[in-house]
């Protein structure tokens, strides 16, 4: 004689348990994805703080208020600045000796510091570019970073162009790359 099946062992109850497990796993996955999603994004305009703040649709009631307050505090940190990076190569197109550390430091002291006495950062680098003859040049380089308030962008621009022109002339370079970016800065 066969033993009667218990409720948990019947084929119908196994399907029901699997369905419930799948539903629970799906619900848990959705909850984890929702909890891990960013709750706010801020975009910065030229002179103002955040241009827009969006709250995750799942955030409501008491949970949304602390998230908005934290996003607002974070957006208020720092002031709008421009970050300008200048990329100086050291290989000379005429085949001469590369620009040395001593020569570059003297250039920064004589040309850059008088124009931006509030501060700057220089980092060593290594890069490559395609020269005017189509040859890929690989060289040691320097990245100079300047930070200045957006309100000083107009007066800063000619100073930066003077730095670029002076480097081209002094070291016989084809170009000095310039990258300008908006940033929020707090010292």
Fold and architecture overview:
The protein is an alpha+beta fold. It is 37% helix and 27% strand. It is built from four helices and six strands, in the order H-E-E-H-E-H-E-E-H-E. The chain has helices at residues 11-36, 64-76, 101-112, 153-171; strands spanning 42-44, 50-53, 79-89, 121-130, 136-149, 177-185. The protein has a four-stranded antiparallel sheet, covered by helices on one side. A two-stranded antiparallel ribbon has the order 1-2. A hairpin with a 5-residue loop joins strand 1 (42-44) and strand 2 (50-53). The longest helix is centred in the N-terminal third of the chain and has 26 residues, at 11-36. Residues 2-8, 14-19 and 21-61 have low confidence and may be disordered.
SSE sequence, one letter per element: HEEHEHEEHE
Cα-based radius of gyration, to the nearest Å: 30 Å
The secondary structure category is alpha+beta
Largest sheet: 4 strands, antiparallel
Strand order of the largest sheet: 4-5-3-6
**Number of DSSP E strands:** 6
Strand content: 25-35%
Oligomer: single chain
Q: What is the mean pLDDT?
A: 75
General form: elongated
User: pLDDT under 50 segments (min length 5)?
Assistant: 2-8, 14-19, 21-61
Helix content: 25-40%
Question: What is the helix tally?
Answer: 4
End-to-end separation in angstroms reads 85 Å
